[in-house]
Structure formats: structure tokens, C-alpha cells
Amino acid sequence: MNEPQWHCLGRVDDLKTRPLQQIKAGKVVLALSYRDGEFGAISGVCNHVGGPLGEGQLSAEGYVVCPWHHWHFHRLTGLARPGIPAAAPRYDLKIENGDLLVNLVPATERRNAPHPAHPLTRPLTREPGPVRVLGISTAAMNREFPRYSTSEALLQTALDQAAAAGHHTQLIRLKDLSFRACEGYYSVSAHACTWPCTITQMDETDQLTAVYEALVFWADVVLVSTSIRWGAPAALYSKMIERMNCIQNQITIHDRVLIRNKVAGFLITGGQDNVQAVAGQMLLFFGELGFVFPQFPFVAHSRGWTAEDMERNVAQVRTSKALHDGARALADRCVGMAADLIAAGPGPRKVERGGRKAHRAP
Ligand code: FES
């Protein structure tokens, strides 16, 4: 049995003015709570990925709710909610002469509920075989009566080109997947944005897993098609890339590059203008993920700002030899580059990104 190490936290009258607070006592971080005339102290470090429990909220039932992903630990016992065999360490408290003291030797131990590792946490290895080309169509269509999508049609042309050359292809239409919008955990702390995505870990019904599997583990080439909507990529594209922050964030917080030796290309179509801005956004994002690009990494079409005759748009793309040849050539460039990268062997697992670490919070 360890000797108690009593440490003064401060005056009781001061400490009871806040229902929940994060306090550092020596080397121990505490979530100190006060409710109904009683203090409670549990570890201020969440069992999940270390969120600051004392900066969370107190639930009506007396649980400390982590501000990062809302795990619950009872403020007096440290126990997780009924049915979850986990606990944060609890600390004994006492009051002497108007001061609140804590025993820095935990009264109970941290316990984590057994969790099988998520499949997306497995090591990254490229299985041998032909170049694998993933197409991601971000066109939003009525599921029952889908229309001709100009961007998806060009994507299909590119995939057909790769398949005809003996490469493996896969098409994911985002409209067929049910997945939640990013909840922005990165905005709280870079460490709150986890790999796999926190939503993927919490919600087994979320279907963006198929994209993570294909993009991170399976593909050598990723071709993304989008329409232009009010000068920006399609809404489903934005919804998808916000959920991919967790891929890029692994570089930020762990120097772990999930995307290595992968090539990206884009197919962009719009009724009016802004091809260059949309291409620029896509190049920026996929570049930040770790993708590389061939020369001339996108094919694009728009009718132009003065054209309101959209009924001609589909016919123009459908019959444009130049656009479909361009899509085929883009596929060839991407596949050729991917084959060269595969032959060169794996790239570095860690990268220096020009001083960003200097701005991380300690
Ligand atoms: S719930 Fe606390 S860190 Fe995720």
C-alpha cells in the first residue's frame, strides 16, 4: 500500500464556485467537481485518447462528460456508465482548515473496456498485383432515377481505360453511401481528430469505411469526379473530404503518412465557370493528404459563365471526343506514374513539412 501524498488544491470556498474544473496537482491532472455540497476528483485524462475531462460538462446523473467525444465517467467513482467495464482513476479528498486536499495516490485504477482493434488500424502494406484504380464519384443523384452525370461519365471513361489495360478498378458512388458529416473534433484539439475517424469508431452503421478502406489500403490511383456548384466542388465531395481530415491529421500529430506512393487525378464538370478554383482546391487537399500528381492532373469542362442553355450540356459532354480522350489520357498518366512509384518501392513513413510542428501546443 502506497503512503498517501496529500496535496493542497486551494481554499474550499474558491474551489466550489465551479461545478467542474481541470486542475494540475503536482504531476497529476484532475477533473475536480462540486455538486450538492460534495467534491469529487477523478483523473482529468480521458481513457479514450486523453481528452481533458475537467474541461467537459457534468451530466444530470453526475457523470463527467469528456469534451472531445463525450465518454462518461462518474464524478465520484470514476466508473463509466452501467454496462461499460471502464473507469478513470478516482482520488480521495479531505478538507482541513478550509483547504481542500487531494491524495495524489489514486484510490482506484484506470480500467479500459476490452475493444477489438478496428480493422482500419492494421498496418499499411500494399498487396502485390496490378495497379489498382479507385474512382470516387461525388455526383448527388436521385437513387431511384439517376440522371446522366457528366463528371461521372468522364470518370467511367477513365476507369474503363484502366480496366482495358489490365489494371484493377473500383467505382464508389458517394450517393450510395450513408455517412455522417464531420463533427469537427480537430477544432477542439488536433489529438481529438483520430484515425480511424472518431465517427467511424463510434458508429458502426457509418459507411464511409468503404472509402477509407479503398483509398488508404487498396488503391494506387484515386480518380475523383465532381460537378461545380456555385463555384465549389459538389456537396458530397466536401462532406467526404471533411471526414478525411483524420488521414491528414495523422501526419500532424504522429508524423504518420497514411498515403504514400499514391497518385490522384480529377474530373471536373460544370455548367458555368470556376474550373480552376475547384481544381485548385482538390489539388491542395489531396496534396496535403500525401498524394502526388501526374503532369496535367485534371480534365475539366464548363459551358462558361454566359451559357444558361444547360440542356445542351449533357449532349456536349456525352459526345465530346476531346473530353473522353482527355479522361483516358488522364487515366494513362496516373497509372503510369503509379506503376513507376510502385517499382521504386515504399517512400518515407515520416516527412518534414516545413516548420508546422513549431506551432503545435505543448
Ligand atoms: S471521449 Fe475523451 S478523448 Fe475521446
The H/E string reads EHEEEEEEEEEHEHHEEHHEHEHH
Distance between the termini: 34 Å
Spans of 5+ residues with little confidence (pLDDT < 50)?
none
CATH-assigned homologous superfamily of the largest domain: Flavodoxin domain
Structural class: alpha/beta
Ligand names: FE2/S2 (inorganic) cluster
The CATH first-level class of the largest domain comes to Alpha Beta
What proportion of the residues form beta strands (DSSP E)?
A: 15-25%
| Percent helix | 25-40%
What count of domains describes the coordinates?
2
Q: Would you kindly provide a written description of the structure presented here, covering whatever features stand out?
A:
It is built from 9 helices and 15 strands. The model has no long low-confidence stretch (mean pLDDT 93). The strands form 4 sheets. Strands 10, 11, 12, 13, 14 and 15 form a 6-stranded mixed β-sheet that branches. It has a 3-stranded antiparallel β-sheet with strand order 1-9-8. It has a 3-stranded antiparallel β-sheet with strand order 2-3-4, with no helix packed on it. By secondary structure, it is of the alpha/beta class. It has 2 domains: 6-103, Rieske [2Fe-2S] iron-sulphur domain (Rieske Iron-sulfur Protein), CATH 2.102.10; 119-345, Rossmann fold (3-Layer(aba) Sandwich), CATH 3.40.50.360. Helix 2 (150-164) crosses helix 9. It starts with 5 loop residues before the first strand and ends in an 18-residue tail after the last helix.
Short summary of the structure?
The chain is an alpha/beta fold and 362 residues long.
Please describe the structure with a list of short key phrases separated by commas or semicolons:
362 residues; alpha/beta; Rieske Iron-sulfur Protein; 2 domains; 6-stranded mixed β-sheet; 3-stranded antiparallel β-sheet; 27% helix; 22% strand; elongated; binds FE2/S2 (inorganic) cluster
